[in-house]
Amino acid sequence: MLLASLNPAAVAAGADIGDAVRIDGVTLSRSDLVGAATSVAERVAGAATVAVLARPTAATVLAVVGALIAGVPVVPVPADVGAAERRHILIDSGAQAWLGELPEDSAGLPHIPVRLHARSWHRYAEPSPDATALIIYTSGTTGPPKGVLVSRRAIAADIDMLAAAWQWTAEDTLVHGLPLYHVHGLVLGLLGSLRIGNRFIHTGKPSPQNYAQAVADGGSLVFGVPTVWSRIVADGDSARAMAPARLLVSGSAALPVPVFDGLADFSGHQPVERYGSTESLITLSTLASGERRPGWVGLPLEGVVTKLIAEDGTAAPHDGETIGALHVQSPTLFDGYLNRPDATAEVRSADGWYHTGDVAVIDAAGMHRIVGRESVDLIKSGGFRIGAGEIETVLLAHPGVSEVAVVGAPDADLGQRIVAFVVGDASPEALIEYVAQELSVHKRPREVRIVDALPRNGMGKLLKKQLLQEF
Ligand code: MLC
Ligand code: AMP
């Protein structure tokens, strides 16, 4: 059973001890979760796909769990989504209804509300492990986001592999304040907790103070993206407040070595770093029982195999120095991009390897270090994956823009920050607001530079590396 701790028979027999989920001021026991989510399941059963506006609320938790009970694939929609991105996600996914919260613009879809106090004790058969659990939209280098088909099998396998690596048990209290529309917050944090049977606390905004409070409330397994950890270290007191936790885990982007060291100094915990993607789920991690090496993301999880392909197409040696393109094979890989066999074939080989797009080195002990990405057009900002092409397309549709180039500039807080170089006569503020409205708030450029011309080579191709030299 995917959400093993919500087994109705066990919950009815009294396994329902204590709180299961605390989020947005609401506390749910496992019995509350089974009863209310099964009531949701009764209302969505039979739908092909539903969209969930994934704000961090109890309604979102019940919507996702209810759809999973009924075997209906969920499309988590970013809480801060803008008009054009929402339209694309709804049309591409074929979502038939909004389940849970209704956005301001429902785009004409019917609404299935979630009632916190409704209860049903109907028993649903567990859907096939091959069934799609989630369709998560994620950015590529060009074009609009693609829907990643994530199966129930992949999710269950990943959580079990991570549980082994992190000695994660029902005794833990998992804490994070991350969005519930991506792998990190939703799959690992929420679904992981409901599979393992540990208590889960969502902190609300992932501020250093909220993290400190959640650890004071018993948090033992704490998840964050590097930006969150960096802000906690900068705060000092909050970093010291992590001391009673059992394991601090960082992922979704590279954890800077000074942040790793700061956490170790203040809290006494060297953080565990892990690596993965929407397409592969988490495939590499350092171990609760093993070496944590600053700047390195760890070893393949049980069942994962990796290979490095050097520029000449041969296998790169595992010498800790030779750089190659990272490919992974894992029971956790996605089932393709929805409606995009062409894009799927570009990254997944017939014999089951996923081409991650990341560049890495591996040492003789099998430790991996991520060196960077193959393309400058995939940006990671605050742990969010953002395609430069997607932002450029939107900006080009603005009447005040004639040419544009978007880059990820190095940023001490966000890892990378989105900077748009624009030829045109619009104001930077108007363009930032335009992207926030059309795509989503977290994809907005943090900076727009109006320039006379963009650097191009003789063929007219943009020279983004030249733009990046400005930083
Ligand atoms: C600012 N705001 C605006 C705005 N400009 N609102 C509307 N329009 C505008 N133009 C508001 C925001 O809504 C927000 O409001 C506030 O200003 C601050 O927003 P922000 O500046 O965008 O937030 P910031 O502090 O920079 O966010 C940092 C962060 C965030 C770390 C909290 O980047 C984050 O949550 N990252 C997590 C990403 C993640 O989970 N990635 C996992 C991908 S899965 P308000 O009301 O909120 O204050 C993956 C796999 C793996 O990668 O390996 O895990
Ligand atoms: P997403 O699909 O949003 O999960 O983004 C996946 C990408 O995030 C990966 O391909 C990497 O580029 C990056 N990533 C995730 N975890 C790490 C990490 N620990 N270190 C460096 N990059 C990471």
UniProtKB/TrEMBL annotation:
Q: Where is the signal peptide?
A: none
InterPro entries membership? AMP-bd_C, AMP-bd_C_sf, AMP-binding_CS, AMP-dep_synth/lig_dom, ANL_N_sf
- Every AMP-binding enzyme C-terminal domain range: 390-461
Domain AMP-dependent synthetase/ligase, residue spans: 47-338
Q: Which GO terms of the molecular function aspect are on file?
A: medium-chain fatty acid-CoA ligase activity
A biological process term (GO) from this entry: fatty acid metabolic process
**Into which family does the record put it?**
Belongs to the ATP-dependent AMP-binding enzyme family.
Cited NCBIfam families: PRK07787.1
For this protein, the record's PANTHER family field holds: ACYL-COA SYNTHETASE, ACYL-COA SYNTHETASE FAMILY MEMBER 3
Put simply, this protein is called Acyl-CoA synthetase
Species in which this protein is naturally found: Mycolicibacterium obuense
What lineage, starting at the top, does this entry show?
A: Bacteria, Bacillati, Actinomycetota, Actinomycetes, Mycobacteriales
